[in-house]
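User:
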Amino acid sequence: MTDAPTLTLFNSLTRKLEPFVPVHPGEARVYTCGPTVYNYPHIGNMRAYVFADVLGRTLSYKGYRLTHVINITDVGHLTDDADAGEDKMEKMARAQAQSIWDIAAHYTQAYWADIAALNIRQPAKWSIATDYVPQMIAFAEKIADRHCYELESGLYFDVSTVADYGRLARAVTEEGESRIEAVEGKRNAADFAIWRKTPSGEKRQMEWDLPWGRGAPGWHLECSVMSGDLLGFPFDIHTGGIDHREIHHPNEIAQNQAFCCTNGLDIPANSGVKVWMHNNFLVERSGKMSKSSGEFLRLQLLIDKGYHPLGYRMMCLQAHYRSELEFSWEGLAAALVRLKRMIMAAERLAGVEAGDAGHPKLAPMLEAFDTAIGEDLNTAVALTALEDALAAKKVDAGAKRAVVERMDAVLGLGLFATSRTTLRLLPKAAVITEAEIEDVLLRRKDARAQKDFATSDALRDELAAKGVEVMDGDPLGWEWKLG
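Assistant: Predicted structure:
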C-alpha cells in the first residue's frame, strides 16, 4: 500500500461518501456494465470506461489486488433501455443483412479498438453474454417459483417480492414508469422480463429452450448472472453510466436479492454489491450524441478531425466523474494543448531512470495527489498535482520521474509512451501530407534566415490555403497545426 491508502467513494445506493472497505481483505472486485455491440460506441459511452479505468487504476495504486470484469452484451438488450421494443442486435442484423454473430464480432472489435486508443487497461475478464446462457437459465430457475410469473410473452420478475425495490433510483417515479413497457397481465408497472419468449411464428437468430418457452434472456438478467458468477456475491463495486441508475441497476439488484435470499437495502451488500458507482453524462449541444443522428460523435470522428484520443481522455479527467461534462471542439483542443505541455515536460526526463519518489520537494505534490485521487477520484485536482510535479525545479531527475510515473499510472495519460509528434494527427480531409508541410516549413526557415520575408510570407500563405496554420514562436514549440 502507499503511505496514504485511504479511499473514499460515493455510493449511489446510500447517496453518501464512504470509506472503501473491501469484502475480501486486500482485494477489490469490480464489475462494469459494458456495451451492447450493435453499433459503434459514442464518446459519451466511452466516458464510462475512462471513469472505470481510473477507478481500477486507483484501486491498484492503493495496493488492492484488482479483479475487474467488463461485459459484452450480444443478446437481450432491447431498443429501449426501459425494457421495451425489439432486441437491438436482431434489429441491426436485419438492417445490415448480416448474421447477428458477425454484427457482434465487428462492433466488439471496434469497441476494443477504442478501449486501446484511450489507454484503458484490459480488465481481468471480458464476459460475453452468450457464453453464460446456461448460467442464466439456472439463475432463472432458482428464483422463478418465489419471484416470477409467466405471461404469454415471457417470464416476468415481480418487483413486489423483494424489499426496497427502486431504492437505488430513489423510487420509480411517474416519469420512470412511463418509460417501462406496458405489457398486458403485468402485476406491477415496474415488473420486467427475465426471459422473453420468441413470438409464435417468428424465429430469432439467437434463441434457446427454457421451461417457459423458446426465446432469449433479458438484459438485466445477464449482468446479475455474469457478475455473480465471476466475482461472487456480494462483491465490492459495480459501475455504469448514470442512465443505468434508474431501471437497469435497480432490476439487477432485485434479481440479486432474489438469488441471494437477502432482505432490505439498509445493508448495501444485500444488493449483491457493496458500492454502486455511476458517472454522469457527457453533454453535447448539437444533438450529435445520439446514434440516430447519422454522423454521431464516436472516437473515430475525433481522430478523423485530427484530435488524438488521449486529448479526449484528458478532457474526461478535467471534470469529476459525477459532474456533467460538456463536449465542445474548443474544449477538446484545449485539453489536447494541456496534454502536449505535460508531454513536453515529461520528455525532459527521457532516458532518466526512476529513483526514490521520496524527495522532500516532491512530497507535498505526491501527498496532494494521494488526497485528491483518494477523495472519490478527484482527477481534476490530481492533474494539477501532476503538473506541479512536472514543473518542479532543482529536484533529482530520478525522483521526479518516479513521482510522475506513479501519478500517471493512475491517470493513464501515457506521458512516457507518447510524443508530441504522435499526438499531432492529420485530419482525414487534409489535402497535404506531413512530409509536404515539413518541406515547405524548411524552405520557409531558409527564407527567413536570409531575411527574404516576401518568400517567407508566400510560403506561409501557401500552407494557409491548405488549412495549415504556422505558429511562429508558439511556447509549445509546435510549428504548425491543421485547422
